[in-house]
Specification:
- By secondary structure, the protein is mostly helical.
Length: 362
Amino acid sequence: MGLRRGFGGNGGVGVENQAETGDGEESRGKGIMNNRVLGVILALALSGCASGEKSDPKMPPPPPQVKPAPAYVAQAIDPELRARAKQELLAETNESDPFLRCNAIEALSQVDAADAPGPVLKGLGDADSPVRFAAAMAAGQIKLVDAYKPLRDMADDPDPRVRAGVRFALHRLGDTRLSHDLERLAASTDPHVRGTVALVLGLLKEPTATKMLGTLLADRAPSVRIQAAEALWRLGDRRGLDDLVAYAISDYPDDQIIALQALAEPGDQRVIQHIRAELTSDYTEVCLAAARGVGMLGSDEGWSVAVPAAASKDARQRSMAAIAMGAIGRSDLQGYLKNLLSDPEPTVRISAAASILQLRAP
């Protein structure tokens, strides 16, 4: 799991880790622009519009270049393993490291909403602003009515990203009186704040946000641009798709990782070819992001990428492998995730726990 945008991403792939300025920014911008042109062509071809003709839906996709997943051997979901997974997430919400608390709160809101309210309400009063942000976003995602008063009390939080998260949650709970403040926050001089606003606008799925997101799509900071592209694609805006396809073939692996997940988020099967192509990337983390992406779209093609990475010496790769397994969702992945639930690294355990709770019963 892991906070994907606002304050940090699992394994350090949050957009705020990308360079905002520097000598390489101009060349990076040119590279993305060239990729965007190709991305538009690829995206048009994807929908059958490149030559004015519709694509043939009967034409089979090219075979994957990875080893096929083994035949599915359905297994009953182990109730004790699920209980351990829930206990792990709940325990991590009380850790001293705010990054772990953030990740655990977000994971609970996504895969165990029944147990999330307590940690979310506690997180709203956390001393660390990243945790308050995670809790506000989680409260909005699960529409936690009990969080309404604490959220109103946080409307003037000193951290602007927390204020954006609070407005997201209040909007989701039906109180839109402060939602217009997002426009002012989108004009912040801090790219992290602008990126957070783009995240919030995409998750709110309000069609009226496309104008503001169009402005953010041309932002000077690459982190803001890619977040705006994801948000626009969530809203079904073709500009977001074109840019995400370009980022998916970027020279920057972190851009690719973010773009591959963003492409898959809306569940549009037409993008699977773009994601599938990165299962054989030179970068293991990109392959794992692609494995997760195709899993989100209902394919188990990433099995042969995720399973070997579960034994990696790199904790980030083990964590991403666990996340990919959760997206694949096959119950016969329980054994691998059970091992990862005992990993010495807490970030890996959080990812494994969340993925165990995502496995589909046969």
